[in-house]
């Protein structure tokens, strides 16, 4: 057994930025790109092409399926809505076949539902898909968006030079503000400069944009979500200070309910985006979404963390042996001490849940009266836990999470609120199983072809010391004793393969190719 300590780093740094009164909490809505991409073939695929019909259907479902009630407000168009040429007056125009009613009419339909309407453009000669960009037309295009009733503008950065963005993005923001219409301004400025080798000027960015992309486009894969989580953890000392009410880091869309994530990994993305204080922009076909995934996207307890009015982005406070702990300060605050949302993330792939054992004090939660703790996915209430009591959670492997909310308790501890034998008792105390992990294998190498040459027998994870803990899992029946028979697999059948992706420099442009 190894004992691992954890220190809570400063969590309360927030930047001072754009004050246009918008996006005081991270925007929530629906965005077309990751799920529907640039499908313009309405003749052969009329139900899924980028068209006014698609966006009207999604607006209807945001209302009828309860997403509006959960806080989702925006219906956002992405690339490929445009005609390939401006009109004879030099103004932007939509593709007339796919948007026969025009963008203004589409915006009015969205507004008639009580929703807000977002649109896409690019600070370049062309958008990423090759449609007209805004270069040379900044003032005119801002005025066009105002005349169409746009509430949210996403400005990409293809076919432009990163050196020009320090001037160009603020200039377009100026013209948006000059229209007098409140429009959230979502920028891609930092990510293009980062990939060109520049250091983004975040002082300027947070005074220009309401949110900004600073990492890769998300893809429909767990690998993509993991890479984003790693970026936000590895660079947290740089990027957290820039986030706050009105100005947010944007790790890109929610891909919950698509094809690339397991159910548990979908829960993980929702939890981590709440810790990141990230915009919650669903990119999924709401027409076919299954109830389990709807429940994740509409989880009001986790949305409340995401929308916490303090606007402080969370950070990674522990990372060892595939286990990570993330913490975000939230309301209520009492005597200069925060409440917290905590995520326990298990990225191990050994096939059995890991027990994580901590005291709240080891996580930096030291309010003497304790914290009221609730699990935000199964809604189990642990009650009041004091800082010195050891707290255990069982976290499933392969990218699963347990997310808890720790609300600070005011005043002195009332002894009758904490059971004397509470010390990390599992929930539903009947039918416990003492799990040994990988039954039939004890790490002697006899089945290395199954588990891999680098396999290490799983251990309970104890953060900060204390006696070794047994793994006790809830709601499980004792198994029958059956002799273990190892299966036989062909050599190399389960080799890991890198299916990642990257930005590549193509003709001088940094393009996300979707391939490594």
**In total, how many beta strands?**
22
- What share of the residues does DSSP label as strand, in percent? 15-25%
The residue-averaged pLDDT reads 83
Terminal-residue CA separation:
38 Å
- Helical content stands at 10-25%
Computed CA radius of gyration, to the nearest angstrom: 25 Å
Indicate the low-confidence ranges by residue numbers: 1-17, 414-458, 465-516
Label the overall shape.
globular
Number of helices: 14
* Largest sheet descriptor: 8 strands, parallel
Strand order of the largest sheet: 8-7-6-5-4-3-2-9
Q: Which secondary-structure class do the elements indicate?
A: alpha/beta
Explain what this protein looks like in three dimensions:
- The longest helix is centred in the first third of the chain and has 17 residues.
- The chain is globular, with a radius of gyration of 25 Å.
- Helix 5 links the parallel strand 4 and strand 5.
- It is built from 14 helices and 22 strands.
- The N terminus and C terminus are likely disordered.
- Helix 11 runs parallel beside helix 12.
- It is an alpha/beta fold.
- The strands form 5 sheets. It has an 8-stranded parallel sheet. A 6-stranded antiparallel sheet has the order 10-11-12-17-14-15, with helices on one face. Strands 1-19-13-16 form a 4-stranded mixed sheet, with no helix packed on it.
């Amino acid at each position: 057994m190894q004992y691992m300590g954890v220190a809570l780093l400063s969590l309360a740094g927030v930047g001072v930025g754009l004050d246009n009164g918008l996006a005081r909490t991270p925007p929530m809505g629906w965005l077309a790109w990751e799920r529907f991409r640039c499908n313009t073939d309405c003749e052969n695929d009329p139900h899924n092409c980028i068209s006014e019909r698609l966006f009207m259907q999604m607006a209807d479902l945001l209302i009828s399926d309860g997403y509006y009630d959960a806080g989702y407000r925006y219906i956002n168009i992405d690339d490929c809505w445009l005609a390939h040429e401006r009109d004879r007056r030099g103004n932007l125009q939509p593709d007339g076949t796919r948007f026969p009613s025009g963008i203004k009419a589409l915006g009015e339909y969205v507004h008639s539902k009580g929703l807000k309407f977002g649109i896409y453009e690019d600070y370049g000669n062309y958008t990423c898909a090759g449609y007209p960009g805004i270069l040379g037309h900044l003032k005119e295009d801002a005025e066009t968006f105002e005349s169409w009733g746009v509430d949210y503008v996403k400005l990409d950065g293809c076919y432009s030079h990163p050196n020009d963005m320090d001037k160009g993005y603020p200039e377009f923001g100026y013209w948006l503000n000059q229209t007098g219409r409140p429009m959230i301004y979502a920028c891609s400025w930092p990510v293009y400069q980062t990939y060109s080798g520049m250091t983004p000027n975040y002082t300027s960015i947070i005074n220009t944009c309401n949110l900004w992309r600073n990492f890769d486009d998300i893809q429909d894969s767990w690998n993509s979500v993991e890479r984003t989580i790693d970026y936000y953890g590895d660079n947290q000392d740089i990027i957290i200070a820039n986030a706050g009410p009105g100005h947010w880091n944007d790790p890109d869309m929610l891909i919950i309910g698509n094809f690339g994530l397991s159910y548990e990994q979908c829960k993980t993305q929702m939890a981590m985006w709440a810790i990141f204080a990230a915009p919650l922009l669903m990119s999924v076909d709401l027409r076919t979404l299954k109830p389990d995934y709807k429940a994740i996207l509409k989880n009001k307890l986790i949305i409340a963390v995401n929308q916490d009015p303090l606007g402080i982005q969370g950070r990674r406070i522990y990372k060892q042996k595939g286990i990570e702990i993330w913490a975000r300060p939230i309301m209520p605050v009492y005597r200069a001490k925060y409440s917290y949302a905590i995520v326990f993330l298990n990225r191990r792939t050994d096939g059995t849940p890991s027990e994580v054992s901590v005291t709240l004090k080891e996580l930096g939660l030291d309010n003497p009266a304790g914290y009221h703790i609730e699990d935000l996915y199964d809604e189990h209430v642990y009650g009041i836990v004091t800082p010195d009591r050891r707290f255990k959670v069982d976290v499933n492997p392969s990218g699963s999470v347990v997310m808890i909310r720790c609300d600070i308790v005011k005043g002195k501890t009332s002894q009758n609120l904490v059971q004397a034998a509470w010390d990390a008792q599992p929930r539903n105390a009947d039918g416990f199983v003492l799990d040994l992990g990988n039954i039939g294998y004890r790490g002697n190498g006899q089945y290395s072809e199954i588990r891999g040459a680098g396999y290490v027998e799983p251990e309970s994870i104890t953060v900060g010391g204390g006696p070794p803990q047994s793994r006790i899992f809830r709601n499980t029946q004792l198994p029958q004793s059956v002799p273990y028979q190892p299966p036989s697999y062909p050599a190399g059948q389960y080799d890991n393969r890198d299916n990642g992706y990257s930005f590549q420099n193509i003709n001088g442009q940094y393009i996300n190719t979707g391939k490594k």
